[in-house]
Design a protein that fits this description.
132 residues, five-stranded parallel sheet, 5 helices, 19% strand
């Protein structure tokens, strides 16, 4: 198992995956791409994702369905900006979302924000005896 966390890119569009992989790696991040939610889930026992760049609309399992199975910070990407999709993204608790097409600087800033926020997050307490 590789212990180095990676930016995982899950999108069913091969050209999007290739482009994002090039951009993310050129910024110095370790990255892996996956053509489907299932492929990502198959990899997950062997790898560790620091951040997930996740397409909303995919075959078999949507980005929302995959999110329901994970605790990884997610940046949703979508070409669909209809009201229902945007509302669901806003309610999902995702770390961010971008509308396709987006620029290199935009995706890298979103990844930096998520990865650095996760690294700076305090370690949660091991007991729940504290009262709010």
């Amino acid at each position: 198992m590789n212990d180095a966390p990676v930016t995982a890119i899950v999108d069913n569009d091969d050209s999007v995956r290739r482009s994002l992989l090039r951009v993310v790696q050129s910024a110095g991040y370790a990255a892996e791409t996956f053509p489907s939610a299932r492929a990502f889930l198959d990899w997950l026992p062997r790898g560790r994702a620091a951040c997930l760049v996740l397409d909303v609309h995919m075959d078999e399992m949507s980005g929302f369905d995959l999110q329901d199975r994970l605790t990884v910070p997610i940046i949703f990407i979508t070409a669909h900006d209809d009201a229902a999709t945007l509302e669901r993204i806003e309610k999902s608790g995702a770390s961010g979302h971008l509308r396709k097409p987006f620029g290199e600087k935009t995706i890298l800033e979103a990844i930096r924000r998520v990865v650095h926020a996760d690294a700076a997050a305090p370690t949660p307490p091991t007991t729940s005896s504290e009262t709010p």
